[in-house]
Amino acid sequence: IGLVGSSETRLYCLPSVSAYIGADIVAGAYVCELEKTKENVLFIDIGTNGEIVLSSKGKLLSCSCAAGPALEGMNISCGMRAANGAIEDVYINEKENEIKVIGDEQPVGICGSGILAVVKELIRTGIVMD
């Protein structure tokens, strides 16, 4: 595969379960020994795809869905990916609200972490009840 190493170098590759349940979540489930759990456990990997493995008394069930659009502000009128100009954090206080913008630039939209920060602040201040 074109990797340079000594003649003693070994390469281990884990299998994917399917096109969207990749070796990354397989590795995580393996390292956490989900097949040995005696209780219900959820193992979650959120990236471009959201992958979830449920271990129910050692029996594993997995699923995947698109997560990138949710974390990139898809269908939010001012949503954007986490790039320069994206609001990534918000703090609501009595005197003046504060925002943190990626790249310390003028805000041009809000990314997924910024939306979560708004929700956190709305709950923290009692504007929205959880």
From TrEMBL:
RACo C-terminal domain ranges (all copies): 39-128
Domain RACo-like middle region: 2-36
Gene3D superfamilies: Domain of unknown function (DUF4445)
One matching Pfam family: RACo_C_ter
Superkingdom: Bacteria
Stored PANTHER family: IRON-SULFUR CLUSTER PROTEIN (PTHR42895:SF2), IRON-SULFUR CLUSTER-BINDING PROTEIN-RELATED (PTHR42895)
Name of protein: DUF4445 domain-containing protein
Species this protein is from: Clostridium perfringens
Lineage, top ranks: Bacteria, Bacillati, Bacillota, Clostridia, Eubacteriales
